[in-house]
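Sequence in, structure out.
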Amino acid sequence: MTSRAATLLQPKPRDIGGFTVRRSLPTAEVRSVGPFVFFEHLGPAVFAPGRGVDVRPHPHIGLATVTWLYDGALDHRDSLGTIQTIRPGAVNWMTAGRGISHSERTTPAERAAGHRIEAIQTWVALPLAHEDQPPAFAHHPAKTLPVLSLPGVRGTLIAGAAYGLASPVEFPAGICQLTLEADADAEIDLPPMEECCVYVVSGGAETCGVRIGEAQMLVLPAGGDGRLAMAAGTRVMIAGGDKLDAPRRMDWNFVASSREKINDAIAKWRASAAAGFRDSWFAQPPGETAWIPYPGDPQPDPPDAAPDAAPHSPADAQSGVRDDVAVASRAEVDYP
């Protein structure tokens, strides 16, 4: 653990076009926990038929994005040519490296039928030696991730190692991320890591003498007691790992060790959009024609359009025609 004191974070809910998001990281008090530089809880929300989540194509550098769903389904598309549906229990791990663009949208089947969605998305900063690595994407089905079974508690190990198990997710630095649910009132040991936070998705928990309520995050201090008490029915996500190897700068969707790298990414995104994403640094995901401009730049016309890629699963092929687009995205919000 680091020397900072325990910090209880209470993210303010924001409505971004039909559903609520709560961002715990970064804040003025805490910029990162281990390699985690961004932590956001989406929902829970219920969408009527014809409505859904639409995060238009946008770029990233210097990080890996991690999507974990509690309910619902999302279609991930990226500039590597990936089209991958994610559902609860699986992990989408996208490594941006020197640059990637991607979109996330409700699947056609769920959009047509109406659906509930709840998710957590995190970003982890790549170590300095990997900032400019080639982009990559990996989908880890639920059956490949270690199942955690503790006294009164069950869960899934998303990344890293804990409780004698190791995740198949690859990351080039010390990391630990897991989700737990208490079947009964329980108290367990927290997995050891240099920096650690506990986020309560629902219910209530306590550690280091601090009560953590629903939608609150506790960033643990050095020398914490290493025990976590959970009330029956409580769901938590634990995240952390080795301290960052150097300070990071964050602007929009870009994470880097220098302002120069961020300015270069901004210029490349603008130039790619101006070139219609043809023979440019950033490319469009399959079937996508929309994009999110850098904050303050003009919006494309039209601002959004349904991807024209053919359905890629039997369930999606049976879906109805999309008749509503909510042009709202967490990616359009600049960071403090």
